Amino acid sequence: MRDTGWSLIVPLKPLSLAKSRLAPVAGDALRPSLALAFAEDTVAAALACPAVRDVAVVTDDPLAERHLALLGARIVPDAPGRGLNAALAYGADAVRAAAPDAAVAALNADLPALRPAELARVLAAAERCARGFLADAAGIGTTLLTAAAGTALAPAFGGPSRERHLASGAVELLTAGVDSVRRDVDTGEDLWAALALGVGPRTAASVRGLTASAGSGA
Known about the structure:
Elements: E1 6-11, H1 23-47, E2 52-58, H2 62-71, E3 74-76, H3 84-98, E4 103-107, H4 116-126, E5 131-135, E6 142-147, H5 161-167, E7 171-172, H6 179-182, H7 188-197, H8 201-216
Parallel strand pairs: 1-2, 1-4, 2-3, 5-7
Antiparallel strand pairs: 4-6, 5-6
Helix pairs in contact: 1-2, 1-8
């Protein structure tokens, strides 16, 4: 853990429930392993970003806990159990219980093409506002929400969250050249777009497994 920088909060639902819209591509057998690979590559890239102090993953999935802790993430149990935004708010509170002046940011767990340098550029832009957010590649959702020290995170993720975050007073971060931070993966089309950007090693390995499974007719 670095002495300064952003504390990132990454939410991850139980792997058996994650990425349901990938079922037509991956099936229920491979879908959980893809979700875990996305999260591993996201967390590894975030921890490699020089602007990031630490990463807290909010999850109750035992397998994800083990894998992400090995990467260096702090695991925060999803005590509220009331969905994404409650988990993020709880994670921010947990971070600030230990570091009251921490600048915090919520980051999606499904950014397998994430580049540390691109994340650093977005976080640098976020330093100029109390709360900021980055819209997803579709311009509808949100992949990153930031809150400066002393500012509540107030997450409003899910569906058309770009509009909700704008309405809440958060500043949209219009940083150019950060496609990897915008490219979350919910559908097969999203996955192909992420692959075109270049994904992390764990996602690449999982996709090879997907390709092999498809080739064998499984």
